[in-house]
């Protein structure tokens, strides 16, 4: 094949006699397109073709000369997206499938675009090493208006091309938040979808998991911004708590939760149960617990400790906790010192960290902190 012929192939539709790289572990290495299905003159990203295997590895499932179906997972010809951007690859590539539409191989190598989801090729996406240009993201929070860090996290991530699955306990508020986000300038509609979720309701958790599995095949990032309040605090108390840094001062509890090497879920639970006993006996101050917002401070310290335990238990997942700072929101009675946009910057930064980034840490804004 001449260089000019190859260049011409890369600039046109996938058509008869186009050579494509095979990017799965079926055993095939290179195929030639025989026909684009559904009567098309040529195939594009996500389309299915009939192809003949031209090169194959010895001992593989697929042999040289075999004829198979293939899904175009990469195309050198640019494809436009609804948000005005384009997706384009350096090569033309396929994943081989059987007559039932299932991948023949068990792994897919290199980047593939999220457009395959629209073509119902969810299984291919689930086998892929990397989904190009898009990340499926789940944000758990409540949305009562724009004065929420969770809302701004969604906006910043979606504006960067991330697919955001926005969740909320209240379906009406969640749908209203989605409509507001979709109405923002430059935000693609398909970048934000809503699913109801109450972290205290197992049925909604199961329903959400099934939705993610069916629609996307995988979840790349989870931003857990959910919380259960139960208290009413005034602005003066919040400012005082912020000025005192809000760190856990109880020496025994701090020692247990800071011991990363020996920390376990059981030890975290032991600290919490001791606090509850002291609270019931009205001896919190006498026992050295914080005098102001002690439950809030301990809950944050326990969550940070639990994140470290989970990071050690699941080393292939990057798990971190982050404090966005004292943000001016409805929850802080607008007494914070940071804007909503500033507050969302650090969680977004942490959510988009590359593979192999830090795990098991507590961040205060954009820096790792040693405090609880």
From TrEMBL:
Source organism phylogeny: Eukaryota, Viridiplantae, Streptophyta, Embryophyta, Tracheophyta
NCBIfam families: rplN_bact
GO cellular component: large ribosomal subunit; membrane
Keyword terms: NADP, Oxidoreductase, Ribonucleoprotein, Ribosomal protein
CDD domains reported for this sequence: Ribosomal_uL14
InterPro entries, sorted: NAD(P)-bd_dom_sf, Ribosomal_uL14, Ribosomal_uL14_bac-type, Ribosomal_uL14_CS, Ribosomal_uL14_sf, SDR_fam
Gene3D superfamilies for the chain: NAD(P)-binding Rossmann-like Domain, Ribosomal protein L14
Name this protein carries in UniProt: (+)-neomenthol dehydrogenase
GO-annotated biological processes: translation
Family recorded in the similarity comment: Belongs to the universal ribosomal protein uL14 family. Belongs to the short-chain dehydrogenases/reductases (SDR) family.
Gene Ontology MF term list: oxidoreductase activity; structural constituent of ribosome
PANTHER family reported in the protein's UniProt record: (+)-NEOMENTHOL DEHYDROGENASE, OS02G0640600 PROTEIN
Superkingdom of the source species: Eukaryota
Species of the source: Nicotiana attenuata (Coyote tobacco)
Pfam families: adh_short, Ribosomal_L14
Gene, per the UniProt record: SDR1_5
């Amino acid at each position: 094949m001449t260089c000019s012929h190859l260049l011409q192939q890369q600039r046109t539709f996938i058509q008869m006699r186009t050579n494509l790289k095979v990017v799965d572990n079926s055993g095939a290495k290179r195929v030639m397109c025989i026909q684009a299905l559904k009567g098309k003159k040529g195939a594009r990203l996500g389309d299915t073709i009939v192809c003949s295997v031209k090169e194959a590895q010895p001992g593989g499932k697929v042999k040289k000369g075999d004829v198979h179906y293939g899904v175009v997972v990469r195309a050198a010809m640019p494809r436009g997206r609804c948000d005005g951007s384009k997706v384009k690859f350096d090569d033309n590539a396929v994943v081989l499938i059987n007559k039932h539409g299932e991948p023949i191989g068990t792994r897919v190598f290199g980047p593939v675009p999220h457009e395959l989801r629209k073509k119902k090729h969810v299984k291919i996406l689930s086998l892929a090493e990397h989904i190009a240009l898009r990340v499926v993201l789940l944000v758990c929070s409540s949305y009562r208006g724009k004065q929420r860090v969770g809302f701004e996290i969604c906006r910043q991530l979606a504006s960067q091309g991330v697919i955001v699955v926005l969740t909320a306990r209240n379906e009406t508020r969640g749908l209203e938040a989605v409509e507001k986000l979709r109405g923002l300038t430059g935000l693609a509609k398909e970048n934000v979808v809503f699913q109801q979720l109450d972290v205290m309701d197992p049925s909604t958790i199961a329903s959400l998991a099934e939705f993610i599995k069916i629609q996307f095949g995988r979840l790349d990032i989870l931003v857990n911004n959910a919380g259960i309040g139960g208290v009413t605090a005034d602005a003066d108390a919040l400012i005082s708590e912020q000025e005192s840094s809000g760190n856990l001062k109880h020496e025994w509890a701090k020692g247990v939760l800071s011991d990363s090497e020996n920390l376990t879920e059981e030890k975290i639970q032991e600290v919490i149960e001791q606090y509850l006993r002291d609270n019931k006996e009205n001896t919190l101050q006498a026992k050295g617990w914080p005098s102001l917002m002690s439950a809030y401070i301990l809950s944050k310290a326990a969550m940070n400790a639990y994140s470290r335990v989970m990071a050690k238990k699941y080393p292939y997942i990057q798990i971190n906790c982050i404090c966005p700072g004292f943000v001016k929101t409805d929850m802080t009675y607008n007494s914070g010192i940071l804007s909503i946009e500033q507050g969302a910057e650090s969680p977004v930064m942490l959510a988009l960290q590359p593979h192999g980034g830090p795990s098991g840490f507590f961040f205060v804004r954009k820096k790792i902190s040693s405090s609880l």
